[in-house]
Design goal:
- The protein is an alpha/beta fold.
- Helices cover about 55% and strands about 15% of the residues.
- The longest helix has 20 residues.
- The two termini are about 15 Å apart.
- The mean pLDDT is about 85.
């Protein structure tokens, strides 16, 4: 996983010499690193930030032996990557659900993303994660635009034996979401998971539809789902959704199949919202909590 990013960071250690780390002798290795990051789906802004933070971290350091240099660079890179991946606001999904439950209300999570990136499957994985932690769920099939979207979500609901609130294609997605919340309130269900119309982020009509759902249900979390396999498009989509609708958290799919991984370094930096989960397989249990420090350590493994 993320082999090309690992090679990029590993290569930096070989390019920096055993003399004082000055701005002059750091310039070329950092420029090379920045170029490689961009080639591996890191946005220009995020790549620049990583190199800027790294330069500040190691500038003026004196290292006497190669092993000391390697260890120092490793720790500096880990610190910088962790910082870039750490949003100002942190979200604990389970704590949020517990708080809402104490207040006598269901937690409402709304999911956004384009077609084909695993949005519906990720919703099912989230339902499984919540159930494993003792919480009940109901699904809202508010994507009434894409052919097959309702049936796909219904199939997951049947597999997991979870209630789904649905209507016909072309129905008002906001009304379906509202009905699901009322259903949850009446039956003391802990969490409502709302699917929305997956579309290209440039489709203004469907963006307006999602905005309407937000206005009607006022979700506790607006979650963007992006696929690491689409590369630069993942953070570009996230940036658009953040600007047009607002994002509270991110989930990235296809982590097990991606060899670049650069989108993960860009999405938190560009949206200033945390990645909360990675999808790493097809099973309902293949949803792992995202930890910035552990992710940084994985990128720096030899």
């Amino acid at each position: 996983m993320f082999e090309k990013l690992k090679q990029a960071f590993g290569g930096l250690k070989d390019k920096i010499t055993l003399k004082e780390l000055s701005e002059k002798n750091l310039s070329k290795p950092l420029q090379t690193l920045q170029n490689i990051l961009i080639q591996n789906d890191v946005s220009v802004l995020a790549a620049e930030k990583i190199c800027e933070l790294l330069e500040k971290e190691i500038l003026g350091e004196k290292v006497g032996r190669f092993e000391n240099l390697k260890n120092m660079l490793h720790e500096a890179l880990k610190k910088v990557i962790t910082e870039v991946l750490t949003a100002k606001t942190q979200i604990n999904v389970l704590d949020l659900v517990k708080k809402k439950k104490q207040d006598g209300e269901p937690a409402v999570f709304m999911f956004m993303g384009v077609n084909g990136i695993g949005k519906t499957t990720t919703i099912a994985k989230m339902a499984q994660f919540l159930r494993r932690n003792g919480f009940s769920c109901v699904l809202a099939a508010s994507d009434t635009f894409r052919a097959g979207a309702i049936q796909q979500l219904e199939k997951h609901a049947n597999n997991l034996k979870i209630k789904i609130i649905k209507s016909e294609y072309g129905a008002d997605g906001a009304s379906i979401a509202y009905d699901a919340i009322e259903h949850a309130r009446a039956r003391k269900i802990d969490v409502v998971l709302v699917d929305t119309a997956g579309r290209m982020e440039t489709n203004k009509n469907l963006i307006e539809e999602v905005k309407k759902i937000v206005r009607v249900i006022e979700p506790d979390l607006r979650i963007f789902i992006g696929s690491l396999l689409v590369g630069n498009a993942a953070w570009q989509q996230a940036e658009t959704f953040s600007k047009e609708i607002g994002i509270d958290a991110n989930i990235l799919t296809m982590a097990d199949a991606d060899i670049k991984g650069g989108a993960a370094l860009s999405i938190t930096y560009l949206t200033q919202k945390p990645i909360i989960f990675l999808g790493n397989g097809q099973s309902y249990d293949n949803l792992i909590l995202f930890n910035p420090q552990k992710f940084a350590e994985a990128l720096l493994e030899d």
